[in-house]
Amino acid sequence: MKKSTKKSYRIMKGEKFIYAIIFLLLIAVPVANVFTKALLSESNIQVEQLKNKINNQENLNESLSMQINELASLDKIQEVAKEIGLNYNYDNVKVISNNH
Q1: CA 49 to CA 37: how far, in whole Å?
Q2: Number of domains in the chain
Q3: Is residue 5 part of a domain?
């Protein structure tokens, strides 16, 4: 009868180091992937919030511009002038023409 011989396989220090690095990479890559996607998602949310703020401010600016145009109209100016007792005297208006 033959005696069975066992081959013993010893793991060297360099192999342990390589296995440790591979194990860490297998853990670190998915974690880093999730982390970067979370940051990207947060950035997209902030971009959308800023777009909403910009749209709101543009609408407010447009509304204020319309109010300015309304208040600066000739009819409104004449109305305010009449309220404070001013009147328009056509006789005091002088037309200056620039003829060369």
Answers
A1: 18
A2: 1
A3: no
